[in-house]
Amino acid sequence: MPATLSSLAADARQAMHAVVQIHAYGFNQSSIPSILDPRFPEPAHWRGSGFLIDLEGRPGHVLTNAHVVRNATRLQMMSLPTSEEMFALEIVGLVPSLEPDVALVRLTDEALEAFIERCGGEIPTLPLGDSDRVERGTTIKAIGYPFGMAEPNISGGEISNFIAGDPDSAERLVTDAAINPGNSGGPSVGHGGAAIGINTSVVADADNIGFVTPITWARILIPQMLEHGETQLADPGACFQPNSRPNATYLGQRDVEGVIVMRVFEGGMLDVAGIERLDVITSIDGAAVDEYGNLELPDGQRRRTLYDAIRLVPVGEDVKIGFTRGGEAKTARVPAAVRPRIDVASQPLIEKRRYVEYRGLVVQELTLEIAGAISSQIGADFLSGVEGRPSPEPRLVISFVMPGSEADYLFFVPGSIVLKAAGKDTKTLDDFVNAVNSATGACVIETQLGGIGAFAMNGNGEQQAEIAVPPTTPG
Prior knowledge:
The protein is of the alpha+beta class. The protein has three domains: 1-231, Beta Barrel (Thrombin, subunit H), CATH 2.40.10.120; 238-335, Pdz3 Domain, CATH 2.30.42; 350-468, Roll (Pdz3 Domain). The chain is 18% helix and 31% strand. A hairpin with a 7-residue loop joins strand 4 (72-79) and strand 5 (87-94). It starts with a helix and ends in a 7-residue tail after the last strand.
């Protein structure tokens, strides 16, 4: 066997001592009944993987995928050096959108003390490698606990491709190494035993196509997680279209270069930089941008988009943007910033979902999750019928009507957009609660389609409504 393969196998065997199996107990964020009626979240139990890392004197931290720990209320881990003993974990931070799919958890203080003792005084950790230097054909070992195996599993393969970022997803690596359910969150290691990525997912029905989250994202996000618990990636805050010879000529360009700005979102990064619609972005931090929005990199081995280039800059650090306006070359320097809200928001975290239960109505601020759940029930795209979409303004939706309740008697139906309560405009749950509780007579609720429902004053002479959150007591 060639020495390099033998060395990688030995590195992987050493690395697996730092790989842990994560047991998560929590709630199913995809349960349609629970999305529409958040009073009753659906319990769930799942497993994944992770690996211990050294954070400069902060022992006991585990890197994993966000989807492994998202919506977990209780976390435990086991490792090869400590047999089947379980140790409690707590979440430090995660990326709720899973783009990129990164989370950081840590052993609780009590668990850390016990874990160190069981490990003989020294915790095994994995160093973080450099995913930017990975090439097609780079040999790797993917380590994890697929299908709940009691010991780490090592599968071999190569980095076979790269998937560049786009407006909605982050850059990722592609591998032919086997990644199965339960592998998620474990490391992909290269020669030397450093983690170059986090095993993330496999494509169903595909032959040897799996995705690995580049370790670069972890390097960017870990400091944010340690300091704030939350994560933010920069975004240009704009939409683009490819350039072409006719359009370049029309825009005053001598050559076809750069990508055309179609739309600038108010308050976004390009807006702050003074860049306008029909400007042409020609470079990001000195790297030329071609007519398709891709960076012209020196090695030519890996495609990266301008979205990748901007996301790789920590929020707050300056980005130099080259562009043309009317054929004249210009530059702007602007702090990297997050994307402003331009449409219906997503809320995958159950603990942050808020609702009001009012006399048989369950009212929530509209999210993509609620829209998807309603769409699945009516067999059509719910959002296409929401007047005024897209819009960054919040909207209230009746997500559930309790059968036999006063609201049911008033013929309210799930999916109705609430416009007013007690004669007052209601866009947020706070608006709704304040309006209902200030009503001095019948509280009339009006919907977008023109329907009404008049709730009579209750027996104690006052309306009562309050904002609640789903019960998420640890299981």
